[in-house]
Task: structure prediction
Amino acid sequence: MDPLHVTSPAATAHARSARPDRRAALRPALQARRHRQHGVVLIFALIAMVLIMISTIALVRRVDSAQDAAGAMATKRDLMNQSDKGVTKALALFSAGALATDLLRETTNVAANYSAFTLATNASGIPAALLANDATFATTGNVLNDIPAPGGLKIRYVIDRLCTAIGTAVTAPASTANCAVYQRNGDKGGSSRVVKAGTTAMWVYRISVRVRDTQKNTLTFVQSTLGA
Result:
């Protein structure tokens, strides 16, 4: 029979301590792996933050652009509405003012901002007088006729007869080729209206209005025509 081998506790503890600790050996590798994972997560987090910032900036710019566009449209609409004051003042001259009769409209009247012949215009059809400074405009109209409006607006208008010359010769029936003519059908019903049976030829007059915003340094132009 083999003799019984008895191992003392001290010897067992010594044997255990002599074995290599696998967990201790793996700990540096595990820590390095965790560090790499943290680094990857950090990179993706930074990319996400950058994308969110870009999206936020784009959204803010889009909102600002929409607000600017809405503001520009509102300003333009207001200037268009203000231009009616110039048209209204010009039309009043035809009813009971300096241009109330055919005879008065046959000659130029600078004091009334009126030209009995077609004014020179730019490529867009805007009279050059409305694009000029006050000194040059004085040859066509009177700056005292300018209409002030709220918000630093100043309204200026000119009226021109769409004819190639001034004087009574232009208004003769034989000279209709020299003017733009509006044909109006007469009243054939025999009522008491002023227009009688037949067709009446009326000369065409153009009203051009400029609205200047002195605060924003912008210009808006409106034109209207009438037959008289």
Observations:
- The CA atoms of residues 8 and 14 lie 10 Å apart.
